[in-house]
Write a structure and sequence with these properties.
Layout (H helix, E strand, L loop, with lengths): L4 H22 L7 H28 L5 H22 L12 H4 L4 H4 L8 H23 L8 H23 L4 H39 L1
Length: 218
């Protein structure tokens, strides 16, 4: 494997992801180290995002692209984002019945469900389904010799999802009783779900164009 800097950063992001998931798994509502764990996870996610930007820029700038980077880089991105949503929908992020702080600062129950993170199980299903569909569409298209690069909608989706994850971690760790922060968290989560749906539809539309062209040429 090519061990130049972009690939080293990608491997480093894999290790950061593992630590990130461990921190989320150790979190407990009201625990002694709960804020510290979320703040540490927040910092790790930011670092992972920076390395993601850097490795792509360095690979293009110095022409250090490789097969490993083309496969591993988007894979790690998906693992980090999807894994974060899965962890944030876990039982340790459920809203304790004796706390219900979201209710006390005016956030409607239907926006958060029973989750202090605001990430509900059905949202995780949406995120996972989108990734499965896009991976299937991309795999089929490229098997037919049609390139299927990332679209602007896909890049916007990644940014909004990452913003939502960071907003959840920071708000729960540092501003749990602040109304505007709670609404920002909830709004960013719903925005992430919406743009996930829209970007998935954009990919499906592009796949239909590919299939239509192939039917005409057949």
């Amino acid at each position: 494997m090519n061990w130049k800097l972009p690939n080293q950063l990608t491997v480093g992001r894999i290790l950061l992801s593992a630590v990130f998931f461990v921190l989320l798994g150790l979190f407990e509502q009201g625990g002694q180290w709960s804020s510290a764990l979320l703040n540490a996870a927040f910092v790790l996610y930011i670092i992972a995002g920076i390395t993601d930007i850097l490795d792509g820029w360095i690979a293009r700038r110095f022409n250090w692209t490789s097969a490993f980077g083309r496969i591993a880089d988007p894979f790690v991105d998906k693992v980090l984002v999807v894994g974060a949503f899965v962890m944030l929908a876990g039982s340790n992020f459920a809203m304790p019945a004796d706390l219900q702080y979201e209710r006390t600062i005016g956030v409607p129950a239907w926006l958060t469900g029973s989750m202090a993170s605001s990430v509900q199980a059905w949202m995780v299903v949406v995120v996972l389904a989108r990734e499965f569909i896009v991976s299937a569409v991309r795999g089929y298209s490229e098997s037919q010799g049609v390139k299927f690069p990332a679209t602007p909608a896909g890049k916007a989706k990644m940014f909004v999802q990452s913003f939502a994850i960071c907003a959840i971690l920071y708000q729960m760790a540092n501003l749990p009783q602040t109304p505007w922060a709670a609404y920002l968290k909830v709004g960013s989560v719903w925005a992430a779900v919406l743009i996930t749906l829209l970007s998935g539809l954009a990919y499906v539309g592009k796949a239909r164009e590919v299939l239509a062209r192939q039917e005409k040429s057949a």
